[in-house]
Design a protein that fits this description.
Blueprint (H helix, E strand, L loop, with lengths): L4 E7 L6 H9 L6 E8 L5 H11 L3 E6 L4 H10 L5 E4 L4 E3 L3 H11 L5 E9 L5 E3 L14 H6 L9 E2 H7 L9 H11 L4 E12 L9 H18 L4 H28 L1 H14 L1
Parallel strand pairs: 1-2, 1-4, 2-3, 6-9
Antiparallel strand pairs: 4-8, 5-9, 6-7
Helix pairs in contact: 7-8, 8-9, 9-10
């Protein structure tokens, strides 16, 4: 069976969520997929769960490595996969049953693009849901430019991307905290073409303690990413100006957040911001 999309699953101490992620793979309506689970030095039962699923389905393979972080695990998984496109599935998230089917259809219907993104739903532990891409702009197929992504992250981590683009930028940078945002920017900067299809094809589960919950580290990482991109010299004058503006915005945001954290506490501040965002 020809494999178009390889699913890469970086997993570190994911015993509580990995089953959900893998069950979403087994539930795919299109069976033409392969998955590479990279056990990134887990100390819980993550590896045992992965082995159980691999024994049940030959499309699932396991790589075990010493803990090197998410970017390192992703790079390892891509190197061991074979699909023309690669898609990331975090071990605490899940794909919709039609992810492979609809992503494959988009690739066939809209040839010539390099990133085939869809929408995702963020779901809190309490069941509250919100869309990642919101607004009229995302109601129909559309394309994002590098300048759009410089302004703020708008490409879901699950988006299939051509392996040739991954190879061209050397994969994910292991020392970067917000490695997916960094990756999308570097891929777009070399000319990769993005396409968004307005279908919800994944669920991202939000919980305390996960990497993306540390807003200060995420925004600090964004500043580093954009500063590196600006210094690389690949941006045109408009993109460079936008990068400087976005860096300044993140710096202002960090300063304000640190003040509010000291006065109110991180949890209260982020809950308040989330409520305001959902209302807007």
């Amino acid at each position: 069976m020809s494999i178009l999309i390889s699913i890469i699953i970086p997993a570190y101490n994911a015993e509580k969520t990995l089953v959900r992620a893998l069950d979403s793979l087994l539930a795919q309506t299109d069976e033409r997929w392969e998955a590479v689970i990279v056990n990134d030095g887990s100390t819980d039962d993550t590896l045992e769960i992965a082995i159980d699923y691999a024994q049940r389905d030959s499309r699932i393979r396991i790589i075990h490595q010493d803990n090197g972080g998410t970017a390192s695990a992703l790079n390892t998984g891509v190197q061991k996969s074979s699909g023309e496109f690669i898609a990331r599935l975090d071990a605490d998230d899940e794909l919709s049953p039609t992810f492979i089917e609809r992503s494959t259809k988009a690739i066939m219907d809209y040839p010539g693009f390099d990133i085939y993104a869809s929408n995702i739903v963020y779901r809190t532990a309490g069941g509250t849901e919100s869309l990642f891409n919101q607004g009229e702009r995302f109601a129909a197929p559309m394309a994002l430019a590098l300048s759009d992504e410089i302004d703020h992250s708008q490409i879901a981590v699950t988006a299939p991307v051509r392996r040739s683009c991954f190879d061209a930028v050397g994969g994910f940078r292991p020392h970067i905290y917000n490695e997916d945002y960094d990756f999308w920017l570097r891929v777009l900067a070399i000319g990769a073409r993005h396409l968004f299809i307005p279908e919800v094809l994944a669920v991202a589960h939000q919980r305390e303690g996960q990497k993306t919950a540390d807003v200060l580290k995420m925004r600090t990482s964004d500043i580093e990413i954009l500063s590196d991109l600006f210094a690389s010299g690949v941006l045109d004058s408009r993109e460079a100006a936008l990068a400087k503006t976005t860096i300044a915005r993140h710096q202002k945001n960090l300063k304000l957040r640190r003040i509010l954290y000291a006065l109110m506490g991180p949890s209260r501040v982020e809950r308040f911001i989330a409520r305001r965002r959902n209302v807007a």
